[in-house]
Fold each of these.
Amino acid sequence: MLALLTRPWVKPLLFVLCTVPAFWLVGAGLLNQLGANPAEALIRGLGDWTLRFLCLVLLVTPLRHHTGLVVLARWRRMLGLFVFFYASLHLLAYAWLDMGFDLAELLPDIIKRPFITVGMVAWLLLLALAATSFNRAIKALGARRWQQLHRAVYAVAGLGVLHFFWMRAGKQLFGEVAVYAAILGALLGWRLWRHLSVRARVPA
Ligand code: HEM
C-alpha cells in the first residue's frame, strides 16, 4: 500500500488535489454559494486552508521517518509552496473584499489590529521561505544557512495559531483554535524530541 506513494503519478495527483480547495472556494464564491456573507466566508476559508497546509507540510518529516519513505521529502517543497499560495490568496481576498485595495485603509488596519499584524508577519516570513525555496537559493545561501532560515516555518506555525486565537478571542470561540494548536504543538514537539535525542546520542 505504502509503495503506491512512490509511483511517479502520485506527485502530480497530489498537486491537483492541493488546488481543489482554492477552486472550490473561489467557484462557490462566483456561484454565490458561500452563504450570507461570502467575503467573510472566502477570507476565513482561505485562512483555514493555510493552517491545514501548514499542518500537512510539518507532517512530512515525521511521516518519512516512521515509514522510511524517502520519496515523501520530494513533496515537502510543493506543500510548502501551497502554504504560501493559500496565505497569499487569503491576504489578497482580505485586501480586495474587505479593504477595496485601498492602501490608505489597508496599512493602518494591518498596524491597528494586532491579529492582522501577526498574520502579516507570518505572511512575510512565508514570502522569504517561498523566495528561497529553489535550488539556486540553496546553493547561494549554503545548505546550513538555508536550513537555519527555513526553521522560520516553526515561527509561522506559532504566529498562525496566535493570529487565529486572537481573532476568535473576542467571541471566546477557542474549540477549533485548540485543535490546530494541539496538532501543530505535537508536530513541533516531535521535532524537538528528535533533535534532543539525536544530540544525546552524539558523544561529547
Ligand atoms: C500564515 C499566515 C496566516 C494564517 C495561517 C492565517 C489563518 C487564518 C485563520 C485560520 C483565520 C480564521 C478562519 C476562521 O474563522 O475559520 C483567519 C482569519 C483572518 N485572517 Fe488570517 N492567516 C494568515 C495571514 C493573514 C494575513 C497576512 C492577513 C492580512 C493582512 C490576514 C487577515 C485575516 C482576516 C481579515 C481574517 C478574518 C477576520 C474576520 O473575519 O473577522 N491573515 N486567518
Amino acid sequence: MKKLVLAALALLLISAAAASAASFLLPEPDKTGGPSALEAIANRASAEQKPFEKEELSEKELATILWAATGKNREPKGWTVPLAMGRDPYVKLYVLLKSGGYLYNWEKGGLIEQTNEKRLISSAVTQEFAKTAPCVVVFVTSGLMNVDEFNYIATGAMSQNIYLAAQALGLKTRFLASYNKVKIESSLALSPVAKITGVMVIGRQ
Ligand SMILES: Cc1cc2nc3c(=O)[nH]c(=O)nc-3n(C[C@H](O)[C@H](O)[C@H](O)COP(=O)(O)O)c2cc1C
C-alpha cells in the first residue's frame, strides 16, 4: 500500500512538471518547403539596423531555426552542422525570449528554462534596433571542446545555418559581436568555463 501511494505521488509530480510552461518541447521543425538552398544563399543578408516588429516567432519557426543551427538530422547521431570528430554539440545555444532565457536541448528538440527574467533581451544587447528583437540566440562554448578554433568554426557554421533558415522562413536575422557579456553571463548563470562566441537577433522587419 505504501509503495502504491509513493508511486501515485511520483506520477503526480511528473505530470505537474510536464504541465509547467517553464521548459517545453518544441514542435517538429520544418524540413521541407521554402526556397532552394541555393536561392537562400543567393538572397542571404543581415537584418537592417532598424526596429523589429513586435510579433514573436512561432514555436514552429523557433524549432526550425534551432534545428538548423544544431539539430539532430540522422540516426544514430549526426547534426545539421559539422562538428569536430562528430562530437556532441560543444557550442550550446541559449535562447532569449520575452518570457525568459532558455537552453536548447538538441536531443529532445526542447527549451529548458534558465531564467524567467522578463525584458532580458533589452539588457542583453546594446544596439537600439537589437533591443526590439523578439528573439535572441546566444552561442556559448561549453568547455567540452578545448581547441578554441573549433568552437569558432562551429559558431560560424551554426550562425550561417540560422541565416539561411531565417531566409527560408521569411525572417530577418543579424549576427552581433556587440552584447552585454556580464548581463548574459549572470542571467543565464553560465559556468566560469563557458564563453559567449556571439549572438544573433531574429524577428520580422
Ligand atoms: C563577426 C561578426 C560580427 C558582427 N557584429 C555586429 C555587431 O556587433 N552589430 C551589428 O549591427 N552587426 C554586426 N555584424 C553584422 C555585419 O555588420 C554584417 O554582416 C555586414 O554589415 C554585412 O552585411 P550582410 O550580412 O547583409 O552581408 C557582425 C557580423 C559578423 C560576421
